[in-house]
Amino acid sequence: MEAFTTHTGRAVPLRRSNVDTDQIIPAHWLKKITRDGFEDGLFEAWRKDPEFVLNRPERQGATVLVAGPDFGTGSSREHAVWALQNYGFKAVISSRFADIFRGNSLKNGLLTVVLEQPVVDRLWELTEKDPTAEITVDLERREVRAEGITAAFELDENSRWRLLNGLDDISITLQNEDAIAAYEAKRPSFKPRTLTV
Amino acid sequence: MGRTLAEKVWDDHVVRRAEGEPDLLYIDLHLLHEVTSPQAFEGLRKSGRRVRRLDLTIATEDHNTPTLDIDKPIADPVSRAQLETLRKNCAEFGVRLHPLGDVEQGVVHVVGPQLGLTQPGTTVVCGDSHTSTHGAFGALAFGIGTSQVEHVLATQTLPMARPKTMAITVNGELPEGVTAKDLILAIIARIGTGGGQGYILEYRGSAIEKLSMEARMTICNMSIEAGARAGMIAPDETTFEYLKGRPHAPQGADWDAAVEYWKTLRTDDDAEFDAEVVIDASELAPFVTWGTNPGQGAPLSASVPDPASYEDPSERLAAEKALEYMGLRPGQPLRSITVDTVFVGSCTNGRIEDLRAAAEVLRGRKVADGVRMLVVPGSARVGLQAVSEGLDTVFKEAGAEWRHAGCSMCLGMNPDQLAPGERSASTSNRNFEGRQGKGGRTHLVSPQVAAATAVLGRLASPADLSDAATTPAGV
Ligand code: SF4
């Protein structure tokens, strides 16, 4: 996983609430067996509309998505995170994320930042008025900065440490191999098994 | 202080706990399917890792599988490639797989319980958000992403921060004709699609205790639609009864030890939930959705709401967008909405009791002209059971299509899809834009409402049919 320390980029204001993962990446894209090449599927249905914000020339190359509340609800597909990353997004800001989506994003190094809705409103206003306005997402200081706006955000220390160092979960867990084996040794025999081994 | 059911199961699975870190949880059962596993196996391969516990892992094919001509090669090359990838991965790593055509094949959340693998007090994960279904047994079961699938394959554990707990207490009795599906749709409409975020839900109260195992699965299945990753119901005699004798249920002394443990899995009287919602079952009625998220629902007797009536601007906007997409007008009675397609199936309502309920309504009746009805068992076993009871004949005689097991029209990944603008009454769990096919419009309903809707060609409950029967023709 790529480390995330601080990122500055232009924004895409997405004034929609309850954007579910079916909208982020429709089901037919889920047939792919790789982690890349999902960028064209991102918001596929909405992108048919030339006026959709992502299609506007002034939004090309933007890397910070500022979305409405309850972003990433619905299906657990990690493809939603890959699609956002493949497209070029480094961070998503919303007042509320669905749990699974948030977990998936942090595991892949896409920083999901929770800010209060009034701050999101101000970021929308700013970036709608001035498409060249940049937003800085600073994970070291846990702060979002844009012209006239400085807002602290919360992220648990553990997730932050993993993101800052780009650490992969599996290697961290495997450092506790002994604890796993000890737990397995005392599991009751009535627990279900899929194979008779 | 006492502990809740969720806390007990959680605590029993902590492999490692350290200050400032998520708990490392042991996973008792890992279910796999073709969609969310390829990148996980690829990750294992790249890092030279193996599957740690093959005996706690099982795979089936469901999302991409066709429900017709299952003996022929799969037409869509991309779907075929994904299924072949699963087969290759399972063979290479040694994972038990039930492929298309196998008698144990089916939707992953129907297969686990039916094999008796889903048991009280276990942790169950799958790369699919409806893993919450398994919580009906008092298991802690939640959907995970592909990185986590890889993590569980490699370590049989997951680092997780403990969610809060919410009690959903349903008192009283469900009125005649009101089902578990109506109840969960009403719960979601009440707490909202984000209401359960950050919580494990525990459904309790007298109305829940009376439900069958399958009805409990319908409820827990849709916990994710309320934003919760997991929903649970305390195991009781109904649970033990369901499990006894299933292929992977404990036997002999193990069974006794298991039941003794399972009986401890109840929320203590002095335990505290972080939140509680109380619902009176007797006030409920058949419930349908009118919008494009599962929280946008109303009793069947109601009308399409007016977006202007919402105070919250984002809800108002969401309702406006939903009505536009759904092609509905404010004030239109829900019962006047005509449908093109009716789908009975999915991990929400594709089990035998659901098929029986739909068949009961259809027996001796006909699907309305111009309406296509698909009946898709949740698993091959459910299909066999239905055939042995003659339900397939009831469906076929009514003019419905009887299909092979799979996710089918629950999502647009296989050949069963809605055409743009087509409208369906569906027993599945998501009415998102395009979920059942690009431009398709979905109304979520119970199996009973689905069947009655098929007969009348418009949203209806079985009660409307007896009216129809006693009303002179032409009125
Ligand atoms: S039936 Fe539908 S919700 Fe259930 S696993 Fe299949 S696609 Fe997902």
3D architecture notes:
The complex is a heterodimer of chains A (197) and B (475). Chain A is α/β, with parallel strands linked by helices and 197 residues long. Helix content of chain A is 32%, strand content 17%. Chain A has eight helices and seven strands; from the N terminus they run E-H-H-E-H-E-H-E-H-E-E-E-H-H-H. Chain A has helices spanning 21-24, 44-47, 79-87, 99-108, 117-129, 157-165, 169-174, 177-185, and strands spanning 6-14, 64-67, 91-94, 111-114, 134-138, 143-146, 149-152. In chain A, strands 4-3-2-1-5-6-7 form a seven-stranded mixed β-sheet. Chain A is globular, with a radius of gyration of 19 Å. Chain B is an alpha/beta fold and 475 residues long. Chain B contains 17 helices and 19 strands. In chain B, a hairpin with a 7-residue loop joins strand 13 and strand 14 (297-299). Chain B is globular, with a radius of gyration of 22 Å. The chains are: A alpha/beta (197), B alpha/beta (475). Chains A and B meet through helix 4, helix 7 and helix 8 of A and helix 2, helix 3, helix 5, helix 10 and helix 11 of B.
